[in-house]
Structures are given as C-alpha cells and as structure tokens.
Write a structure and sequence with these properties.
about 80 residues, mainly alpha, 3 helices
C-alpha cells in the first residue's frame, strides 16, 4: 500500500483554517450590514465601526454587531415618562 498523503485532499488543519476564515468573513459582512443600516448612528460612528471591523478580524465585527443591536433595541423602546 502507498502511505503517501494526497496533496489534493485538504488536511484537518487546512479545513479548520478555512472554516475559521469563512466565519471571520461572515462576521465582517454581518457587521457591515448591521452598522450601515442602523439609522441612529452618526456618520463618524459608522466609519469608525467599519474600520474597526476590518482592523480587528474577529473582535471588531463582534463589537460592531453588539453595538448595532443594542442601538436598534434602544431605538425601538418607547420613550415613556413616569409620572
């Protein structure tokens, strides 16, 4: 039998790196959509969050997603004044 490794079949390590890269790309895309579609962000905040999403591959998009979701939740809440 031939015990050589076939170079055309990815190893587990290569598949794991590909998966992590795909997750990072999906996170950046989700962060861009959420940040750019949140109307209550000022243009400066939007630019800063987009730059952060590209500068810090995993943490940046996560920060952008969390801030956008919190901002949307805050904007949806009715402003009630207690008597």
């Amino acid at each position: 039998m031939n015990d050589e490794v076939d170079p055309l079949i990815p190893t587990v390590w290569e598949a794991a790196v590909l998966g992590v890269g795909a997750v990072a790309v999906l996170l950046v895309m989700a962060a861009l959509v959420l940040v750019l579609s949140t109307k209550s962000f000022s243009p400066g905040v939007r630019i800063a969050l987009v730059v952060l999403a590209f500068a810090a591959p995993v943490a940046g998009p996560l920060v952008g997603i969390v801030l956008a979701l919190l901002e949307r939740r805050k904007a949806r809440r009715p402003n009630s004044v207690s008597p």
